[in-house]
Amino acid sequence: MTQESTIPEFLPGTLYMLILRTLASGPLHGYAISRRIKQSSEDALAIEEGSLYPALNRMLVKGWLTAEWGVSENNRKARFYKLTEDGRKQLERESNQFERLVRAIQLVMRPT
Amino acid sequence: MNWMRELARRSAYLWRRTRFDRELDGEIEFHIQMRAEELEKAGMPRADAARQARREFGSSVRMRESTRAAWQIRCLEDLLSDLRYGIRALRRNPGFAAAAIFSLALGTQKPVPVSRRTGFANRAVTAPRFSSYLVVKPATVPD
C-alpha cells in the first residue's frame, strides 16, 4: 500500500490550490473532488472529509466558488461546486507562488 | 471591495442558517453513500460497506461545526443571541420591563426649556418632555 499524506498536514494552504485546480475542468461535488485529487496524485494525497467541507465553505465565503444542487452521475441529489472568475484568478496566483516555492526548494536541495 | 462582498455573503448566511444545516446534512449523507457504494462495488457486503463508510467519515459533529465556522461572524451572532435572550427575559417579567422602560424614558431624555410662567415645557421651542409633567419643582426657600 502506498503511503498516504493528508493534505493539511503536508503543506498548509495547498488544499485551496488543489481544489481550485480540480474544479478548473468543470463543476464537481465534494465526493468527486476528493476522488479526483486522490486519483491524480496516484493515491498519494487524501483529503479528510473533516477538512474538505470546511475548506469548500471558506472558499464559498471568499467568492472563489459557487455551489448549486444538481443530479449526480448515479441520479442522486448532490451539491456541485463551480469555479468563479475570482477563483480562476486565485488559482493562477497560487500556482505561480507554488511553482516559485518548489523551484526554490529544489535549488537548495540540489546535490552539490 | 472584496471584503464587502464577503461580508454580504456572510450576512446572507445569517438568515438561512436552518437551510444551511439541512443542506450540509444532505451533503454529508451523499458523501457517505457514495463511499459505501464504492466499497460495495469493490466486493464488500452492503451492511459492512455502509458501516465502514460512516466510520471513515469520522466525526460529523466536529466537521459540521468547523464548516459553519467558515460563515460565522462571531460577534454579530453573539449580539443576536444576546438580544434574543434579553427580549425573552423582559417578556417573562413584564412588570419589571415596564418599570425599566419607564425609568429609562425619564432619565435619557434631552433637557428641554421649561416655561417659567406655566411651569410646562415651552411648546414653541420644542415638544415637552414627558418628565417635565411629573417632576415637582423644588420649593423656594425664602432667605
Task: Note down, in words, how this protein is organized.
The complex is a heterodimer of chains A (112) and B (143). With 112 residues, chain A is of the alpha+beta class. Helix content of chain A is 57%, strand content 18%. Chain A has a 3-stranded antiparallel sheet. A two-stranded parallel sheet of chain A has the order 1-3. The mean pLDDT of chain A is 89. By secondary structure, chain B is mainly alpha-helical. In chain B, 66% of the residues lie in helices and 0% in strands. Chain B is elongated, with a radius of gyration of 31 Å. The A-B interface holds A 29-31, 48-50, 53-54, 57-58, 60-63, 69, 72, 74, 76-79 and B 2, 5-6, 9-10, 23-24, 26-28, 30-31, 33-35, 37, 56-59, 62-63, 66-67, 69-71.
The radius of gyration over CA of chain A amounts to: 15 Å
Question: Strand percentage of chain B, roughly?
Answer: under 5%
Q: What coarse outline of chain A follows from CA principal-axis ratios?
A: globular
Quote the beta fraction of chain A: 15-25%
**Structure summary, number of beta strands of chain A:** 5
Task: Report, as a whole number of angstroms, the end-to-end distance of chain B.
Answer: 70 Å
State the separation between the terminal residues of chain A, measured CA to CA. 34 Å
Q: Sketch the major β-sheet of chain A.
A: 3 strands, antiparallel
Flag low-confidence runs of chain B.
none
Rg of Cα set of chain B: 31 Å
How many strand segments of chain B? 0
Helix residue percentage of chain B? 55-70%
- Round the mean pLDDT of chain B to the nearest integer and report it: 81
Q: Please describe the biggest sheet of chain B, giving its number of strands, its sense, and whether it closes into a barrel.
A: none
Along the chain, the helix and strand elements of chain B come as HHHHHH
Any low-confidence stretches of chain A, pLDDT <50, length ≥5?
none
Which structural class should the secondary elements of chain A be placed in?
A: alpha+beta
Estimate the mean pLDDT confidence of chain A.
Answer: 89
Q: From the structure provided, what is the oligomeric state, counting identical versus distinct chains? A: heterodimer
> Which structural class best describes the helix and strand composition of chain B?
mainly alpha
Largest interface: A-B, 21 and 27 residues
